Amino acid sequence: MYAIITEPTFYFVAIPSVILLGLSKGGFAGLGIASTPLLALYLPPLEAAALILPILITQDAISVYVYRRDWDSWNLKVMLPGAFAGMAIGWLLASHLSDALVRIIIGVIGLAFVANTWLRRNQIEQHKATVTSGVIWGGVSGFTSFMTQGGGPPFQVHVLPQRLPKLVLVGTTTIFFAIINVLKIGPYFLLAQFTAKNFVTSLLLLPIAVLANFAGIWLVRVTPTGIFYQIAYVLLFLVSLLLLWQGVKAVI
To answer: Distance between CA 246 and CA 166 in Å, rounded?
Structure first.
């Protein structure tokens, strides 16, 4: 039998991390971005991303089934090609680009988007997105998701202003990240980020993550649409601020 991670410090950050992942996969997408940074307090960031990947894929399977009828095909068609390119770039740069820089990039993008929206209230109203926007933000999301499992803010920059129906937004997010998470398996193996010890530890954490997943699904369904979008913007602001602070702190 393979050993597992036994240090209490790890579980102090890992358990909140998988709970946030579960709530995120249930529909509150902004929460999940904090998971890898939490685990990165204990593990190297890319290894932390690889450790939670089996959990993510299991949660994706649950959420895709729940939201299988609620998704927007146009957004997936324009964002996924960009995401594939962004993941390929992340794969090529994984051993050269610092995690601090990636966090700064994600944080700046998210904060700039939220600030622009809050300062110009009319942008909260629905507006039509473009193919160019979808490809670009899909690419940024694929890149940051590959590096830190932090693809949420760039994805939301493109999707949130469209004011999609609540369940359609959640379903589109779920399917988008389910596809790119499966595609990470090969590159992570080739980058030697999977270990037997981490994989067994992932299985140990899985029941907690699944319970949190169902809690997130329930919360999304009972939360009014207006409040849901307000929560989404606030979460995006908070996690972007956290990532920016972590990145800058690591540099100075």
So the answer is: 31
pTM as predicted: 0.77
At residue 140, what is the residue type? Answer: V
pLDDT for residue 122 is more than 80 = no
For residue 35, the Cα-to-chain-centroid distance in whole angstroms is: 8
How many structural domains comprise the chain? 1
* Distance (Å, whole) CA 138 – CA 135: 5
C-alpha dihedral (68, 73, 76, 81), degrees to nearest 10: 130
Burial 136-151 (b: 16+ CB within 10 A, else e): bbbbbbbbbbbbbbbb
Does 1 fall in a domain?
no
Q: Is residue 80 part of a domain?
A: yes
* 195 within a domain of the structure (yes/no): yes
Structural domain including 63 reads 8-251
